[in-house]
Write a structure and sequence with these properties.
The structure holds two protein chains of two kinds.
Chain A lengths: L21 H4 L17 H13 L21 H8 L14 H18 L3 E3 L5 H18 L8 E5 L5 H8 L3 E5 L9 H7 L4 E6 L12 H10 L3 E5 L19 E3 L20 E3 L11 E4 L4 E4 L16 H37 L3 E2 L10 E5 L4 H10 L6 E2 L9 E3 L7 H20 L1 H6 L11 H6 L5 H9 L6
Parallel strand pairs in A: 2-3, 2-4, 4-5, 5-6
Antiparallel strand pairs in A: 1-7, 6-7, 8-9, 10-11, 11-13, 12-13
Helix pairs in contact in A: 3-9, 4-9, 5-6, 9-11
Chain B lengths: L6 E2 L4 E6 L2 E6 L1 H7 L2 E5 L6 E2 L4 E7 L3 E5 L4 E6 L1 H5 L3 H4 L7 E4 L12 H11 L1
Classes of the chains: A alpha/beta, B alpha+beta.
């Protein structure tokens, strides 16, 4: 049975002490600053504090992390080693002194082009949603250049879309129109055709979709967009299912964002910043953000010469450390390795689905790609998710996609061995049985974690966002904890 | 849980006609599907809204869901109470209306669902 550490750990500012600590005693008075409101805590106490917090935490390095559409694969430590080599670069350094760093960026652009069959990439966006927003700005710029922006006001998204898709389109000033799914869990082509006309700017879609189902009609979808003068946007969150097998370019997409922190193994989810490069093809190349990294045959350089660039979307050159990690991952696996990772991710997902499908409902089609969606037969998704924590497994994504009520969206990734998948399946089956025989165990879960079930309703209705806010609300009697 | 004297939409809004005005809210089924509602966003008084357009948003810990205007018309009142205490929608979704609209096209009322028709839709969904 899994047991998580449980400390009554104070916040750092609650640990503040006016008493002189021996560490302090070694610092000459002349070097001490009195004007900083930093807690007075010796280094070793800070280290212990964070070590204890880490023991109350959960991570990819602890156990299975089947969070759907997040691709929580293992983050190879070699990536960290390589990224660390660049720790002391400064963004204002002269290009001639950072040729190695620029070479890595250039090579990464080239490799991402090959993987996606796009013509050019920007590495600037800081994460997936930022990539989507950049992509939507490119859609705007493209239609504006063709003097069609005024009539092309609508961006279409499937009802199974990641929530960031409609948000990004709306942020870029478009109206969002939702396209329903058909009985097989794919885009309803007739509804799409009916909704598409010269008011359509783009269709945003992820393939395979959030149900883990490959959109078989993708070429037809691309055709419907292109014959109406609209663009097709690929949300790369689920690229892990198709790397080396097919590509957004082969499916006739115009714009692609990737999540280097998902597909290409850089850490995320509190473990590090993301990176959401955007690739385009055809005329769209002329609109990319600057700078692009280029090579003139002798040296690598930052190229600000993009004809109709939408400008900069990020300070300096994107999240460079993440770029290095993705570069290292791709270099180490090579084309064959990436393809094997995709195949393994799909096999793992289907193996797990087969093992649990008698105990959970599986809506829509049988065959899935890298992830699948089930719903509990006799419990809420929330209860199952909370109970999983008791067994040392991170909960899958729940209540998403919205078209499946009580959805559990499971993505094991290629990381997990058959033994781990079997262990996870056994736990899922055990929880399904508990739901029938002793449902109160589920209602009260988690039992073994640092923090028991959080009152998420209260947290949403009365959000306490900072320690200061907490102290003030407590004083006013607005909260009683 | 589906009062006979109200009219309904496929998207789980209810409409209560009062003279040339109508109150709009979300149904029992809607709040049940959403679980605990934590946030409500409503239009401004005076907004002209066409049938089918976005009338507001309700959010639960599970999901955010758009509310669609069942009829066209001007917003004449919004229920600030539910904005301040979203849990009212879980407690009594029929008493706690969201928006009051002027009925611009009385013929649109005929397109709304009866309690019986709406009941069928809820049954099909579950």
């Amino acid at each position: 049975m899994y047991r998580q550490a449980r400390y009554d750990e104070p916040l750092l500012n609650e640990m503040h002490s006016t008493e002189k600590k021996d560490i302090d005693a070694n610092v000459p008075t002349i070097l001490k600053r009195e004007n900083l409101e930093l807690p007075n805590i010796p280094e070793y106490e800070v280290v212990r504090h964070y070590t204890r917090l880490s023991q109350m935490n959960y991570a990819v390095d602890i156990n299975t992390y089947p969070l759907g559409s997040c691709t929580m694969k293992y983050n190879p430590k070699l990536n960290e080693e390589i990224a660390r080599m660049f720790l002391y670069l400064h963004p204002y350094q002269d290009e001639s002194t950072v040729q190695g760093a620029l070479q890595i960026m250039y090579e990464l652009q080239e490799m991402l082009k090959e993987i996606t069959d796009m013509d050019a990439f920007t590495l600037q966006p800081a994460a997936g949603a930022h990539g989507e927003f950049t992509g939507m700005l490119l859609v705007r710029a493209y239609h504006e250049f063709r003097e069609e922006l005024e009539k092309r006001r609508n961006v279409l998204v499937p009802d199974s879309a990641h929530g960031t898709n409609p948000a990004s389109a709306a942020m870029a000033g478009f109206n969002v129109i939702e396209i329903p799914s058909n009985k097989e869990g794919m885009v309803d082509i007739d509804a799409l055709e009916a909704a598409t006309d010269e008011s359509t700017a783009a269709f945003m879609i992820t393939n395979p979709n959030t149900l883990g189902i490959f959109e078989e009609d993708i070429l037809e979808i691309a055709h419907i967009m292109h014959k109406n003068g609209a663009l097709l946007y690929y949300d790369g969150a689920n690229l892990n299912a198709i790397m080396g097998i097919t590509s957004p370019g082969k499916m006739n997409f115009d714009i692609v964002h990737l999540n280097l922190h998902k597909t290409f193994s850089a850490p995320h989810g509190g473990g590090g910043p993301g990176s959401g490069p955007v690739g385009v093809r055809g005329d769209l190349v002329d609109f990319l953000p600057v700078p692009i990294v280029n090579y003139d045959g002798e040296k690598y350089f930052l190229d600000y010469n993009v004809k109709h660039s939408i400008g900069k979307v990020r300070s300096f050159y994107g999240n460079f450390g993440v770029l290095v990690k993705a570069w290292a991952y791709i270099k180490r696996l090579g084309g064959e390795g990436l393809k094997n990772a995709a195949i393994r991710a799909v096999v793992n997902s289907n193996y797990l689905k087969e093992r649990i499908k008698e105990h959970y409902e599986l809506p829509y089609k049988e065959l899935r790609k890298h992830e699948f969606v089930v719903k509990p037969k006799n419990a809420t998704a929330l209860d199952v998710a909370k109970r999983l924590l008791d067994f040392g497994v991170h909960a899958p994504t729940i209540y998403f996609p919205l078209i499946v009520h009580e959805a559990l969206m499971i993505e094991p990734t290629e990381t997990e061995s058959k033994e781990n998948l079997d262990r996870f399946a056994d736990i899922m089956i055990k929880i399904a049985k508990e739901a029938d025989e002793a449902p109160e165990i589920l209602h009260e879960a988690p039992h073994n974690t640092s923090i028991r079930r959080v009152d998420d309703v209260l947290a949403n209705r009365k959000p306490v966002l900072t320690w200061k806010m907490y102290m003030e609300m407590k004083e006013k009697g607005e909260i009683d904890y | 849980m589906i009062p006979e004297d109200l009219k309904y939409t496929k998207t789980h809004e209810w409409v209560k006609v009062e003279g040339n005005k109508a109150k709009v809210g979300i149904t029992y089924h809607a709040q049940e599907q959403l679980h605990d509602i934590v946030y409500v966003e409503l239009p401004n008084v005076g907004d002209e809204i066409a049938k089918g357009d976005n009338l507001g948003v309700v959010e639960s810990v599970k999901a955010a869901s758009d509310i669609y205007a069942p009829i066209s018309g001007k917003v004449v009142a919004v229920n600030e109470e539910v904005v301040n205490s979203p849990e009212l929608l879980n407690q009594d979704p029929y008493k706690n209306w969201l928006v009051e609209m002027e009925i611009a096209e009385p013929s649109e009322l005929d397109e709304l669902l009866s309690a019986e028709e709406y009941k069928k839709i809820v049954e099909e969904e579950s």
